[in-house]
């Protein structure tokens, strides 16, 4: 057994490694990127024998896992928040197909408002997806639970997928010492996955994913039965785990409840705080206990009833509320205890951090009162948000609902605000600024999730000076088409410019983009292409250059860049490529896009000093080098006719472009030659194939 | 005082990031040499943060409250009129 000092994110990766997972698939979303980063490192350094599939969206991440599991291997993914919501359909599919995958859920809130804060709205929204659900409280429990999850899920009487919840930031970004179980012991505990129900073998062909008309409810009944069976299987696995590894787990974790009059019921890392508070109150002579619900599905009803049989008061701490009813855990606990009739109080804390003194004040309140009550504890105060923006806010007008007095926007030429929290030297910001100042005041800007969104979209501190709206990551093009149609209906002749990064346009947003363009809405779609998921810390995207290093391609990306502009050309619309170093050229193209008959697509390379690893002063220089070496070709295309806007008299060797960027460091001469050949081919193809 | 946030993830406060003092991020400060500078607007148009003011026949002005010190202006200046100077800590 080795001691490590790691975060829960890394613990999840170690858990998957020890469980000998063979296929990993994920899509970058904060804060799950730590899990994927750690897995990539384990795999690329040869410590883990698995294949990672870096996909273009969570729907695909789930599908890759389900596909791999259905073929007969052990598969793992991690997601949270919006991503988990996007994976929803696939999650239900995997449980229905009895595929025992494990999903590490770094749970965060689901928007709007879009957020990265820790909250259980993502995982609780999947409460009924027929997944075994474990809520962990520290890195040790994460690693142990992931190993156990495969054992339980793959049991022949269960065959269900599992969620292992590790709370955003409180766990994913918290470092703790833990014991890493030995591989031989894990192998003894967890035998290789040899499915008898779902696999692909041409000697014994089977069909998977059958439909159901008459037997639909029977299938659901089977899942329910499997869940009920799982209760016993979980306890059995916990007993065996304790024998081998010496750590004890169960369906619930009851602490000093035997004689407790008041019991705090919680999940995840709040339980650790609860135990501390219990110890303190016991010293004061108050009979307090703590009950952690470790397994939420199957719901351990008997164990909860046993633990709370003597409690006169129960305090339930919820991190997610079902709007229009109560906290989700509260409802479940009340239902389990209906005939005991203790006084149950419900504190809904959502994402708010909880400290021991908070919990003490909750306990004090519950001790004082003789009725069950509900309280949204320590709720955020709107005044504080606006206090932040004091001096520039029109909060008073908002508060009273009177007409908002605001800066006169007529005569302004710069429609992006100052003071944006984007990196120094961000060329994407320069590009957005240029687009808006060219299009002018009568413009509406729907924009996709990404760097620009993160820097401009706070309620108190907004970065736009014209009508703008953020929707989701993958739907900016569809939202833009809805906006355009509505504006036309109202007779408002505005420009609609949909802005997205390479993720929002070429990856997760590609389906929406292609659909909206095909429908012919007159919208300008702009892809600011910084060649990776920069907002989540530089993970590869489909437009990442060949051999470029990112967090998910440590040895360089092994496949070529997706040529999104040529794909858009095939839609028969106005397409133009641009570079930040040629602003006049960009301006001309923006105006042409504005005047185009139908949709227009602008593809703009935006060198990213942070992700590409170059001096922030060189942003424009790098884009110039992209032009001079032919790594980026400036052209326009409309109705299938392509014209090259300008071309260097003599192309510089590609090495000039590569050598200034850290992401291309360590390339061998052969690799540089290979890139040079690619660039040559691409350049010639674009110039000749007119 | 009990107040409510306006419903629906809406902000009527546009342009309010302007209170962020992004100039505090700066390590190197762009210093303009007015002798060398023949105002041409190159620095102004390439500044990602849009905080270099250029008006015809006037001296170029840098708004240090926002300037993050990326150095693009100094690198792009055709007359080398901008020097990046390390600031005191």
Sequence-ordered SSE layout with sheet pairings:
The complex is a heterodimer of chains A (690) and B (89).
Chain A: E1 2-7, H1 8-18, E2 23-26, H2 33-44, E3 51-54, H3 58-71, E4 75-79, H4 81-96, E5 102-105, H5 121-125, E6 132-135, H6 139-153, E7 162-165, E8 175-180, H7 183-189, H8 216-245, E9 252-255, E10 262-266, H9 270-283, E11 288-293, E12 295-297, H10 301-308, E13 313-318, H11 328-336, E14 343-348, H12 356-368, E15 374-376, H13 382-388, H14 395-400, H15 427-439, E16 443-447, H16 451-456, E17 468-470, H17 476-489, E18 495-501, H18 502-507, H19 510-519, E19 524-529, H20 564-569, E20 574-578, H21 583-595, E21 600-605, H22 609-612, H23 619-629, E22 634-638, E23 641-646, H24 655-659, H25 669-688
Parallel strand pairs in A: 2-3, 2-4, 4-5, 5-7, 6-7, 10-11, 10-13, 13-14, 14-15, 16-17, 16-18, 18-19, 19-21, 20-21
Antiparallel strand pairs in A: 1-8, 6-12, 9-11, 20-22, 22-23
Chain B: E1 28-32, H1 42-46, E2 52-53, E3 61-62, H2 72-76, E4 82-86
Antiparallel strand pairs in B: 1-4, 2-3
Shape of chain B: elongated
Residues in helices of chain B, as a percent range: 10-25%
Return Rg of chain A in Å.
Answer: 28 Å
Counted by DSSP, the helix tally of chain B is 2
Oligomer: heterodimer
Q: Please state the average pLDDT score of chain B.
A: 89
Major sheet attributes of chain B? 2 strands, antiparallel
How many DSSP E strands of chain A?
23
- Which structural class should the secondary elements of chain B be placed in? alpha+beta
Distance between the termini of chain B: 41 Å
Beta-strand proportion of chain A: 15-25%
Please report which band the strand proportion of chain B falls in: under 5%, 5-15%, 15-25%, 25-35%, 35-45% or over 45%: 15-25%
| CA distance, first residue to last residue of chain A | 64 Å
Radius of gyration of chain B: 17 Å
- Secondary structure class of chain A reads alpha/beta
Shape of chain A: globular
**What is the element string of chain B, with H for helices and E for strands?**
EHEEHE
Question: Largest interface, with Cβ-Cβ < 8 Å?
Answer: A-B, 56 and 39 residues
Major sheet description of chain A: 8 strands, mixed
SS summary, helix count of chain A = 25
* Uncertain stretches of chain A: 391-395, 397-405
């Amino acid at each position: 057994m080795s001691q490590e000092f790691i975060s829960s994110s890394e613990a999840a990766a170690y858990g998957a490694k020890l469980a000998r997972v063979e296929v990993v698939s994920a899509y970058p979303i904060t804060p799950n990127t730590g899990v994927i980063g750690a897995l990539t490192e384990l795999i690329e350094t040869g410590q883990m024998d698995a294949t990672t599939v870096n996909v273009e969206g969570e729907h695909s991440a789930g599908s890759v896992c389900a596909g791999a599991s259905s073929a007969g291997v052990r598969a793992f993914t991690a997601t949270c928040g919006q991503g988990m919501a996007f994976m929803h359909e696939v999650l239900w599919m995997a449980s229905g197909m009895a595929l025992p995958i494990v999903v590490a859920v770094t749970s965060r809130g689901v928007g709007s408002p879009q957020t990265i804060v820790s909250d259980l709205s993502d995982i609780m929204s999947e409460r009924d997806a027929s997944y075994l659900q474990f809520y962990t409280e520290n890195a040790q429990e994460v690693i142990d639970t992931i190993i156990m999850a495969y054992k339980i899920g793959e049991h022949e009487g269960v065959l269900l997928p599992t969620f292992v919840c590790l709370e955003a930031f409180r766990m994913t970004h918290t470092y703790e010492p833990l014991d890493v179980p030995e591989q031989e012991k894990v192998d003894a505990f967890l035998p290789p996955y040899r499915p008898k129900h779902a696999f692909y073998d041409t000697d014994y062909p089977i069909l998977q994913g059958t439909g159901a008309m008459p037997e639909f409810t029977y299938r659901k009944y089977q899942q329910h039965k499997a869940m009920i069976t799982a209760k016993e299987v979980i306890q059995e696995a916990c007993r065996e785990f304790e024998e081998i590894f010496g750590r004890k787990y169960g369906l619930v974790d009851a602490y000093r409840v035997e004689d407790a009059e008041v019991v705090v019921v919680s999940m995840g890392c709040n339980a650790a705080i609860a135990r501390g508070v219990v110890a303190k109150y016991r010293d004061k002579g108050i009979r307090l206990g703590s009950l952690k619900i470790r397994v939420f599905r199957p719901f351990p009803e008997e164990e909860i009833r046993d633990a709370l049989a003597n409690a006169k008061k129960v305090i339930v701490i919820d991190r997610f509320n079902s709007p229009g009813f109560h906290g989700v855990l509260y409802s479940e606990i009340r239902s389990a205890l209906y005939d005991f009739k203790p006084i149950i109080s419900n504190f809904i804390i959502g994402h708010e951090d909880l400290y021991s003194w908070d919990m003490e004040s909750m306990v004090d309140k519950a001790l004082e009162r003789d009725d069950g009550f509900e309280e949204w504890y320590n709720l955020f105060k709107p005044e504080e948000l606006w206090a932040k923006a004091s001096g520039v806010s029109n909060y008073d007008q908002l508060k009273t609902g009177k007409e908002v007095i605001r800066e006169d926007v007529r005569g302004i030429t710069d429609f992006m605000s100052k003071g944006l929290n984007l990196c120094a030297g961000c060329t994407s910001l320069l590009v957005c600024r240029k687009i808006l100042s060219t299009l002018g005041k009568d413009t509406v800007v729907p924009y996709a999730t990404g760097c620009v969104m993160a820097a401009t979209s706070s309620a108190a501190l907004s970065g736009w000076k014209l009508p703008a709206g953020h929707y989701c990551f993958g739907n900016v093009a569809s939202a833009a088409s809805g906006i355009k149609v509505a504006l036309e209906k109202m007779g408002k002749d505005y420009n609609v410019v949909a802005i997205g990064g390479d993720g929002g346009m070429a990856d997760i947003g590609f389906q929406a983009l292609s659909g909206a363009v095909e429908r012919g809405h007159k919208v300008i779609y702009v892809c600011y292409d910084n060649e990776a998921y920069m907002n989540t810390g530089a993970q590869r995207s489909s437009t990442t250059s060949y051999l470029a290093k990112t967090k998910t391609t440590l040895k360089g990306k092994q496949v070529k860049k997706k040529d999104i502009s040529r794909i858009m050309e095939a839609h028969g619309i106005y397409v133009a490529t641009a570079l930040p170093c040629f602003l006049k050229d960009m301006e001309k193209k923006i105006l042409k896009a504005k005047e185009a008959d139908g949709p227009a697509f602008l593809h703009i390379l935006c060198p990213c000093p942070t992700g590409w690893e170059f001096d922030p002063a060189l942003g424009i220089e790098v884009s110039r080098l992209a032009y001079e070496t032919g790594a980026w070709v400036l052209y326009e295309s409309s109705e299938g006719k392509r014209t090259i806007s300008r071309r260097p008299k003599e192309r510089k060797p590609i090495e000039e472009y590569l050598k200034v960027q850290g992401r291309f460091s360590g390339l061998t001469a052969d690799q540089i030659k290979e890139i040079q050949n690619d660039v040559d081919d691409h350049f010639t193809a674009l110039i000749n194939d007119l | 005082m009990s107040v409510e946030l306006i419903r629906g993830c809406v902000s009527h406060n546009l342009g309010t990031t302007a209170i962020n003092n992004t100039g505090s991020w700066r390590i190197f400060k762009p210093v303009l040499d007015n002798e060398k500078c023949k105002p041409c607007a190159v620095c102004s148009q390439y500044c990602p943060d849009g905080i270099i003011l250029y008006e015809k026949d006037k001296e170029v002005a840098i708004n240090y409250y926002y300037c993050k010190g990326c150095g693009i202006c100094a690198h792009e200046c055709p007359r080398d009129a901008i020097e990046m100077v390390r600031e005191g800590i």
